[in-house]
Sequence to fold (374 residues):
Amino acid sequence: MKCGSFEFSLRELAGSMGDFGTLFPLAVGYMVTCGLDPSGFLVVMGLANIVTGLVYRLPLPVEPMKVLAVTAVAGHWPPYLVFASTFTMGLVWLFFAATGLIDRVAKITPPSVVRGIQAALGVLLALEALRLIDGDLLLGVASVLVVLLLRDNARAPAALVLMGMGVIILAVRGDLASLPGIRFSLPPLTGFALGDMWHSLVQGGFAQIPLTATNAVIATSALISEYWPDRRVSERRLSLNMGIMNCVGAFLGGFPLCSGAGGLAGQYYFGARTGGANIIEGVLEVTLGLFLGSSLARLFERFPGAIIGAMMLLVGLQLTTSLVLVKRDRHLLPLLATLAVSLATNMAFGFLAGLFAHHILLPRISGDETKSEP
Fold:
């Protein structure tokens, strides 16, 4: 069913699941390790997806901020610290949008550095995917074949088939029988102390900011322009979007959320083309959060990792194709510097290395000022 620039179909439903490979592990970590209420963050994610789909009319992903998620899970953060980090990140991105600072950062970032960030993200996703597949190689290989065979199948989209396979496996193992039944629960009202905001910044927020600026804002805006040349979404709008949803979500049990080039590539790869994908995913998340929140932590924790790994692997490989899109040899140095340093350290340092290569090294090597890249 189509509605203007929205489409509600099996293909859009399958596409909405394209970024589950990054969502699942981090969501499980927040629930199991940090003790977040599944009802709260699912409803927050669902509402964010619905509003984002309606506003942008594109399959713009809503996903966890990865540095903060990993830091929170590894450090066993209590829920109030997660909520403080959510609100703090919201203020940060509202500030970046209001001052236009994010536009200035985007202006000095050449496409070769953006490509390097995308490629680094693709390699990291592929490596994590191989780790997940290694736990059940046969299922992983079968899942990859399902994706390759059914990716463009409108009647049996690959992502839906894989999710169905996972549920069947859970049922055969007896995992579904032990889940609690349907129970209505509203998201909790949550809060935090002002001092927790600074603590969350020091523990992970400052490290998150460069990654979000490069991957969730600059790289995502570039990828939108690549997929939909006539539907540009500016870096400032993406920054504003993240600011609002995090400031609101902090008081409803949410965790730090952002967009992401990897999530967008995943949704596009599995068929999402319109804002309908976000609306479908959002409605599902709100419904699950309200009626099955108590069951989901256990369900996500037991879902076959090899299936998620197969989805992540192919999305990661697609992102690495940015390596072949560089048009001139002189652009290879910033791209490779970004990629190498990102993989050796993190994407924030990779971003700085790419800027250094483009603005400092290239002019010295060529003997003139580097011109803006097309």
In short: The CA atoms of residues 119 and 321 lie 7 Å apart. The radius of gyration is 20 Å. Residues 369-374 have pLDDT under 50 and may be disordered. The chain has one domain: 2-181+188-318.
